[in-house]
C-alpha cells in the first residue's frame, strides 16, 4: 500500500527538498546525538467556545497494545539536536531507523502548546520501533508555548507561519522546515486538539483527521482503529481534506508539506473536553493506523 500512495510525485518531492536544502538559509544548527471542503483544519482561536460538560466517554475497547511494536535487531535510534540560537531553544527530534528499507514518516506534536494530548501522544510514540523504514518524531515542536500552556507565543501562531511558495516566517518555523528538508519524509502527521467537534460547531475540528489529496485510505485506516473503541456516534472520528492554501486559515505546516513539497500529510484532531487518557490513546491509534497503511509496520 505504501507504494501506491507514495510513488506518484516522489521523485519531484525529493528534488524539491534537495534543492531547498541546497539553497537553505542555514539559521538552524543540526547535530546528531464532516464539513465541506471549504473548511480548513486548525481554525481554533484562543477565545473560541468550548463544549464543557459533554459527558462521560464510554469505556474504550482495547489497550495500548494497539501501539506495541517488536524491536528489530538491526534498529537504531539517533537524535537530532535542532538548536535555534535566536530563541535559545532546541527541538529534540528522534530518528528511529528499523534497519530495513522502507518509507520515512515524520510525526510532530506540540505545534500549539495548549493541545496536550498531541504532544503527550508524541512523547509515547518515541518508544515505537518500525518494522521497516524510519520513524522521525518531534514531540514538542513549540517548547515555549508548551511551557506556557498557550496556543501562541510572542511570535504568534506557529501554525500560520508556513506560507506555500514562500519561506517560513519565523526562526522556529524555519527550524521545523529545516527538519523536513533534512529527513525527507514520505509522510507527515501533525497531532492537534480542538475546542469543538468537527461538523458540530463552525470552528470545531475535533474528532477528525484531515488528509492531503490521495491519502484518504491511509486516513480511513487510522479512523477505523479509533472508532471501534467509541460507542457514542457524536464523538466518532470523521475525515476531511487539508484544503487549498487559498482557503483560510493559511500558513499551516501541513499545507506546506502537502502542497509545496508534495508529501502525503495528515492532521489528527481530538476534542479537548474529552478525557485526556482517551484523547492520547486515540491520537496513537490513528497514527499507528496510518503508519500501518504506509507499511512501516507489518
TrEMBL record:
This protein's cofactor list reads: Zn(2+)
Per UniProt, residues of the Succinylglutamate desuccinylase/Aspartoacylase catalytic domain are 102-163
Q: Give residue spans, biased composition: Polar residues.
A: 36-51
Q: Which InterPro entries does the annotation name?
A: AstE_AspA_cat
Task: Recite the UniProt keywords alphabetically.
Answer: Hydrolase, Metal-binding, Zinc
Q: Look up keyword Metal-binding and say if it applies.
A: yes
Q: Say if the entry is tagged with keyword Lyase.
A: no
Q: Where is the composition biased (Low complexity)?
A: 59-79
Classify the source by domain of life: Archaea
Renumbered residue ranges of the record's region Disordered: 35-79
Question: Which Gene3D superfamilies does the record associate with it?
Answer: Zn peptidases (3.40.630.10)
- Which residues, if any, are the signal sequence? none
Q: Which SUPFAM superfamilies match?
A: Zn-dependent exopeptidases
GO terms of molecular function: hydrolase activity; metal ion binding
Name of the protein in its database record: Succinylglutamate desuccinylase/aspartoacylase family protein
> What species does this protein belong to?
Halocatena marina
Species classification: Archaea, Methanobacteriati, Methanobacteriota, Stenosarchaea group, Halobacteria
Amino acid at each position: 500500500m505504501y507504494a501506491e500512495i507514495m510513488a506518484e510525485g516522489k521523485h519531484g518531492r525529493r528534488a524539491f527538498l534537495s534543492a531547498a536544502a541546497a539553497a537553505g538559509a542555514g539559521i538552524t544548527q543540526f547535530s546528531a546525538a464532516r464539513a465541506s471542503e471549504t473548511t480548513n483544519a486548525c481554525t481554533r482561536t484562543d477565545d473560541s467556545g468550548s463544549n464543557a460538560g459533554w459527558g462521560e466517554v464510554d469505556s474504550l475497547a482495547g489497550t495500548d497494545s494497539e501501539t506495541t511494536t517488536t524491536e528489530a535487531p538491526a534498529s537504531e535510534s539517533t537524535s537530532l539536536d535542532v538548536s535555534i540560537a535566536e530563541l535559545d531553544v532546541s527541538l529534540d527530534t528522534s530518528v528511529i531507523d528499523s534497519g530495513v528499507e522502507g518509507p520515512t514518516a515524520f510525526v510532530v506534536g506540540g505545534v500549539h502548546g495548549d493541545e496536550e494530548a498531541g504532544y503527550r501522544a508524541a512523547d509515547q510514540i518515541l518508544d515505537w520501533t518500525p518494522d521497516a523504514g524510519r520513524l522521525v518524531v518531534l514531540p514538542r515542536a513549540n517548547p515555549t508555548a508548551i511551557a506556557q500552556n498557550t496556543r501562541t507565543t510572542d511570535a504568534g501562531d506557529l501554525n500560520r507561519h508556513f506560507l506555500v511558495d514562500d519561506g517560513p516566517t519565523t526562526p522556529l518555523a524555519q527550524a521545523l522546515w529545516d527538519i523536513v528538508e533534512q529527513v525527507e519524509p514520505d509522510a507527515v502527521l501533525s497531532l492537534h486538539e480542538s475546542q469543538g467537534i468537527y461538523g458540530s460547531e463552525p470552528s470545531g475540528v475535533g474528532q477528525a483527521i484531515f488528509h492531503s489529496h490521495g491519502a484518504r485510505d491511509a486516513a480511513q485506516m487510522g479512523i477505523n482503529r479509533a472508532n471501534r473503541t467509541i460507542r457514542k456516534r457524536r464523538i466518532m472520528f470523521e475525515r476531511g481534506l487539508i484544503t487549498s492554501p487559498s482557503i483560510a486559515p493559511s500558513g499551516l505546516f501541513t499545507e506546506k508539506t502537502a502542497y509545496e513539497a508534495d508529501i502525503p500529510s495528515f492532521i489528527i484532531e481530538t476534542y479537548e473536553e474529552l478525557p485526556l487518557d482517551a484523547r492520547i490513546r486515540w491520537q496513537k491509534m490513528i497514527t499507528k493506523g496510518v503508519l500501518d497503511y504506509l507499511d512501516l509496520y507489518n
